[in-house]
Design a protein that fits this description.
Blueprint lengths: L5 E5 L8 E6 L7 H11 L4 E8 L4 E7 L4 E2 L3 H15 L3 E6 L2 E10 L2 E7 L4 E4 L2 H11 L13 E4 L3 E6 L3 H5 L5 H11 L1 E9 L4 E8 L4 E4 L3 H13 L7 E7 L7 E7 L6 E9 L4
Parallel strand pairs: 2-3, 4-6, 11-12, 13-15
Antiparallel strand pairs: 1-2, 1-17, 3-4, 4-5, 6-7, 7-8, 8-17, 9-10, 10-11, 12-13, 13-14, 15-16, 16-17
Length: 283
């Protein structure tokens, strides 16, 4: 079976930066094994598959596969898929039905470039237990003194679960050398998609790294689902008291810088994440 797999870089305007995602816009005839095999062949952290389409109604059913397994939701592949749909049909309002729930996506053109804003499923956050935080620190080869005490360790959700760990310095964030097997085992047991490591430059600017062993990759250069969960985490901590726009810089230490714009409204359970996506041209 011939399948047209598009390749995009999300949360960037540079194909050599951002987070690569595969996009299959006509996947209605594919089985789960087909999709898993295609995702493994593409080799990106996730590939999105549009399995049902209603272009007139702007509704699409989307499934996401890493090279190893299906995941309930993926932010950067959502942005990439929405931009591809907008490229074909024009910008507007879309609704993606995912395993995590319905995700509205707004696409617009600004200065000749397509942007997409996803609205997450309801976000929630809870303190991590010592049985969760302790093994995570051990796998990361970090000490409790490496953490920023202003940000307690939480487990947060906005379509998928992520451990939230704040580091005290940018240098410590840059120096990441973790035990892949140990962290993968812990994350599988806890059902975490990524571990969201972050450093606060100030109240609205953050730098992040996301180890992603469940997907078979060491690190994700831009993680929209984790950014949405992060917005919900900050709201749960009471650090967001008015509608606030955050910027998350990710992928810098990988040489694939990405920028995620996160809008958090304390009156809403949902978080908005905005970014660009550009095609990766195949040679």
């Amino acid at each position: 079976m011939s399948v047209d797999v598009l390749r995009y870089a999300a949360f960037t305007d540079d194909p050599a930066s951002g987070n690569p995602a595969g996009v299959v816009v006509d996947a209605g005839q594919l089985t789960e094994q087909d999709m898993l095999g295609i995702a493994a062949g593409v080799g990106y952290s996730e590939t999105a598959f549009v399995t049902e389409s209603d272009p007139q109604g702007g509704r699409y059913t989307v499934r996401y596969f890493s090279p190893r397994a299906e995941v309930p939701f993926c932010g950067h592949a959502t942005i990439a898929t929405a931009v591809e749909i907008a490229r074909r049909a024009g910008p507007g309002t879309l609704v993606f039905t995912t395993r995590a729930g319905e995700v509205p996506v707004q696409t617009v053109t600004q200065d000749g470039r397509l942007w997409a804003t996803l609205t997450s499923v309801p976000a929630r956050s809870r303190p991590a237990s010592q049985d969760q935080a302790g093994p995570a620190l051990a796998a990361l080869r970090w000490a409790p003194a490496d953490l920023d005490p202003q940000f307690p360790v939480h487990v947060a959700f906005a379509g998928a679960w992520h451990l939230m760990l704040a580091v005290a310095t940018r240098a410590r964030l840059a120096d990441l050398d973790y035990d892949f097997a140990a962290l993968a085992e812990l994350m599988a047991a806890q059902d975490w998609t990524t571990v969201h490591l972050f450093w606060a430059e100030d109240a609205v600017r953050f730098h992040a790294r996301n180890p992603f062993p469940p997907g078979g990759v060491v690190e994700d250069p831009a993680t929209g689902a984790a950014a949405a969960a992060f917005g919900g985490y900050l709201r749960a901590l009471g650090r967001i008291t008015v509608p606030t726009r955050l910027t998350v810089r990710q992928g810098e230490d990988l040489g694939r810088p990405s920028e995620l714009v996160v809008d958090v409204d304390p009156a809403s359970e949902r978080v908005k994440v905005t970014g660009q996506a550009v095609p990766i041209r195949q040679l």
